[in-house]
Amino acid sequence: MPDDSAPKTGHEGHAFATRMSHAARPPIRSLGFVNPPVHRGSTVTAPSCQARMDNAKHRFDRVMTYGTQGGPTHYALEDVVAEIEGGTHCTITGTGLAAVAVPLLAFLKAGDRCLMSDSAYGPARSLAEGLMKGWGIETVFFDPCIDAAGLEALWTPNTKVLYLESPGSHTFEVQDVPALTAVAKKHGAVSMIDNTWGIHHFQPFRHGCDVSIQALTKYVGGHSDILLGSVTVNSRDHHLIVRGAASAMGHYASPDDCWLALRGVRTMPLRLAHQEESALIVAEWLAGRPEVLEVRHPALPGAPGHELWKRDFTGACSLFGIVLQPRYTEADAFRFVDSLKLFGIGASWGGYECLALPTNAMLGRAVSAPLPGQAIRLHIGLEEVADIIADLEQGLAKLAG
Ligand SMILES: *Cc1c(COP(=O)(O)O)cnc(C)c1O
C-alpha cells in the first residue's frame, strides 16, 4: 500500500514525456540552472555534535551523515525512477546486478526458500545457485508460463520470496504477474520483479509486486556508457529493509553516473518510442522470413504470453528474440550474426545502437522446454529502420551459403 511518504511531484496528471522532462529538477521559477548539480562527497559535516547524533537516526530518510548514504544527485535519480515505476521509495545501486542482489539478500535468510522464474537473468540464477545456496537459502526454479495453481503447488511454508522477470530478457515469455503475486501475497511472501524490459510500460505495484528492480544501465542510461541499478518499493517498511541491506553491504553508485542517468532519462521517452516502433517493424519483417521459425516479441500475436502483454503492458521496448529454423546449426547462427554490419555482438541493451547475440549457450534453464532452434537476441537502436532491415537481409542471405 502506498504510504504518506510517497513523493508528490506535481506532475501526476501529465504524460510520460512531460514527467520525464520535469521530474527531480530544480523549480523552473528559481532562476537557477535547468539540471540538478553533481554532488560528490564522502565526509558530510554536521553543524554540531548533537545534530550529528540525531541525524544518524534518519540516515535512511535522506538526512545525510556520510557519502555512502547517497546525496542530492542520487536522490534526484531515485525520485525519477520512483516516478517511472509508480513506487514510494527507490534505492540506487552501482549496477543492475547489485539491484538484483540487494533485495534478495535483504528479504531472505538461512532456511528460507525462493521461487525464481526459469527465465531470470543469468547472473541472478548464479547468485541463487552459488552464494545464496551456500548461506542455506534454497531456490526452486519454475516455468515462466506457470499459472497460479502451478505456483501454489510449489509453495512451502518457508517460501519467502517470489522472484519474477517478465518477459525474460532472453526467452521473452510474459508472465501472469497479478495471478502469481496474489499467491505470494496469500502466503505473506514478498514478490520481486526484474522490470528492466517493462520500464514504464509495466507498472509493477499495480500488479501486486512489492519490489521492482531495474538495470538503469539499459534505456535510462541509453548510451551504453554507464552501469547503474535501482530497487523501488511501495512502502516505507520495505524501503527501510532494502536501504538497510544496501547500506550494510556498502553499496554505492557514483554521483557522476547518476547525473548521466538523469541526463539520459530526459530523452528516454523519445528514444524508447522510436526504438519500440523500429523494433516492431523489424520483428514483423523477420516473422515473414523463411529462415526464421519464431519471433519472440511480446507485442506480436502468437508470442509466448502475448495476451498477458496486451492486458498488462502499455508498450514494448526494442529487445526481442528470434529462433531460426531447426535445420540451422550453431555455426550457421554465428555466421549470420558475424556478417551483420550494423549490429555489435555484445551483452547489455537499451543504448542507441543495434546489438545481436546468439543466446542458446547462455540459457541455464532448469525446468522449461528447450528452444526448438538457434536463438538470437536482437536489440534495435536508433539507426534508420530501412538500413537495419537491409543489414539483416544480407545476413540471412549468408545462411543459404
Ligand atoms: C542487464 C540486466 C541486468 C543487470 O544490469 P547491469 O547493470 O548490467 O548489472 C539485470 N537484469 C536484466 C534483465 C538485465 O538485462
UniProtKB/TrEMBL annotation:
<dbReference type="InterPro" id="IPR000277">
    <property type="entry name" value="Cys/Met-Metab_PyrdxlP-dep_enz"/>
</dbReference>
<feature type="modified residue" description="N6-(pyridoxal phosphate)lysine">
    <location>
        <position position="218"/>
    </location>
</feature>
<comment type="similarity">
    <text>Belongs to the trans-sulfuration enzymes family.</text>
</comment>
<keyword id="KW-0456">Lyase</keyword>
<dbReference type="GO" id="GO:0019346">
    <property type="term" value="P:transsulfuration"/>
</dbReference>
<dbReference type="GO" id="GO:0019450">
    <property type="term" value="P:L-cysteine catabolic process to pyruvate"/>
</dbReference>
<dbReference type="InterPro" id="IPR015421">
    <property type="entry name" value="PyrdxlP-dep_Trfase_major"/>
</dbReference>
<dbReference type="InterPro" id="IPR054542">
    <property type="entry name" value="Cys_met_metab_PP"/>
</dbReference>
<dbReference type="GO" id="GO:0030170">
    <property type="term" value="F:pyridoxal phosphate binding"/>
</dbReference>
<dbReference type="GO" id="GO:0047804">
    <property type="term" value="F:cysteine-S-conjugate beta-lyase activity"/>
</dbReference>
<dbReference type="InterPro" id="IPR015422">
    <property type="entry name" value="PyrdxlP-dep_Trfase_small"/>
</dbReference>
<dbReference type="InterPro" id="IPR006233">
    <property type="entry name" value="Cys_b_lyase_bac"/>
</dbReference>
<dbReference type="Pfam" id="PF01053">
    <property type="entry name" value="Cys_Met_Meta_PP"/>
</dbReference>
<dbReference type="InterPro" id="IPR015424">
    <property type="entry name" value="PyrdxlP-dep_Trfase"/>
</dbReference>
<comment type="pathway">
    <text>Amino-acid biosynthesis; L-methionine biosynthesis via de novo pathway; L-homocysteine from L-cystathionine: step 1/1.</text>
</comment>
<protein>
    <submittedName>
        <fullName>Cystathionine beta-lyase</fullName>
        <ecNumber>4.4.1.8</ecNumber>
    </submittedName>
</protein>
<keyword id="KW-0663">Pyridoxal phosphate</keyword>
